[in-house]
Amino acid sequence: MFDLIASGYCSMDRIIKIDPKAKISKTSIVQNDDNSVIRYGGCGINVATCLSRLDKKALPIIRVGDDYESTGFKDFIEKEKLSSDAITRVQGVSTSCCYLIENPTSEHITLFYPGAMNADHFRKYDRQWFSSSKLALMTVASKIDNVEFLKRTMEAKLPLFLGMKFDKNAFPSRFLNKVVRNATGIFANEIESDYILSVMKQNTIEDLFKTNPLLDFYIITKGKQGSLGYFRHNKEVHIQNAPIVPAKQFVDAVGSGDAYIAGFIYGYLGGQSILDSMRIGATLASFVIEGMGATSNAPNIESLNARYHATFFEGDQL
Hints:
This protein is of the alpha/beta class. It has helices at about 45-50, 75-80, 125-130, 145-155, 175-180, 190-200, 205-210, 255-270, 275-290, 300-310; strands at about 1-5, 10-20, 30, 40, 60, 60-65, 85-90, 95-100, 110-115, 135-140, 160-165, 185-190, 215-220, 225-235, 235-240.
């Protein structure tokens, strides 16, 4: 049995830090020596990896290309103890890759090659993947992949979490409306949340809970201001705030949002309250910020537990 089944593009990330900001016809100097290093990830893979380091079993659905072995992606999957049950090989193409061009203020230009994850290479999903999982996380992928993921999730009657990433190609308004109406939990930043409200033709987050009786929580991440959680309790919608957890050093913000989702899910699966799950998410994100790439500094249970309690001084053991 898997704790989580996750959708989303996989990616081989190369992080390129420049100064000053890139401009047409102007040379920008690359700041980091490790700019050619491949860091394996993608939203679903990032969440799955963070959870695996916390001894949770995650099943990412991805398609890979001819370079699966030669790039080291297969070794990464095995090293992080991720299941390969839902990994499909596509012949004649490469695995997805991404170039993240980052300026000194951590703003990104993202250059993404979909490769095997392109919609043209879609393969139907095995129902068994879903029947053997406890909950489902939908992240950004091709629309046809997300449609299939929603269909199988609903068939299996799994709780559905959404991490939208503000991709209108993956989540056109009509499809997003259907996802939100069937979601158990939603993670969004403030811009994504405004888009969701406009698509749903609602004025407030509280209105979404009336539209969807299945909705258990709605989390808005707000950067340095922490996160805001709406959740259903005793037929009423309550609101809680969780602060950020300060990192020991800031290295790179890539993957911090995925880390927050992973930490929240870890708490949620363990029966923690929504507020404590938010705090766990913030704690896990603080580790990821301290290392390059989306998962290089993701913690084990002992490290997460120690920082969580040192920060909040309350709650049960994780």
